[in-house]
Amino acid sequence: MKFERYRRKWSNLTEVIGGAPLAARPRLSTKAVACLKLGEDSLSEENYQTVAKVADLAEGRGLSVVVDGTPIAVFLEGGNYYAIDDNCPHQGAPLSDGIVFDKSVTCSWHGWRFSLENGCWLDSPKSRTKVGTYPVRVVGDEIQIAVS
Ligand code: FES
Question: Using one digit for the tens of pLDDT, what is the confidence trace for 33-57?
């Protein structure tokens, strides 16, 4: 019985830091679920601002933009666009310069990894450390980010 409890805990941890699609992750810890729900605010049309053209961003790369004075890193990974804070919470490196892999970005300075989906610090899933995330959409050939 005790072993099963630890097996489940380990399973939850590997799901958070692993690369399986979220839909394929049947069990997440309460903390992880709370982290995933952050940034799901409903936004209106006027919250979206054009930040770049689709042609400006290559697959697997980051692009630094500034919206209302906030540096934001925009990524195209696996055909999906993501936007997160561009300042690493460790020592401020631009995350837009990081290495993109499996819906995450690895900071180019010291290697901290952050989820592109929810901004969580993937190296320490129980930590409250995270970066902000922003809704992204493509309208025509424009990449738009919503900032509330
Ligand atoms: S500044 Fe990003 S990991 Fe150190």
Answer: 344 444 445 667 788 999 999 999 9
Count of helices and strands (H, E) across the chain: 2, 10
CA dist list (Å): 82 to 5, 28, 61, 65: 35, 22, 11, 12
Domain that holds residue 133: 41-146
> 65: which strand partners?
72
Ligand 1 near 124 CB (within 6 A): no
Span from the CA of 119 to the centroid of ligand 1 (angstroms): 14
- Count of domains for the chain: 1
What's the CA gap between 41 and 25, in Å, rounded? Answer: 23
The pTM score is: 0.73
Residue of the CA atom closest to atom 1 of ligand 1: 91
Q: Residue holding tokens 């300042």?
A: 87
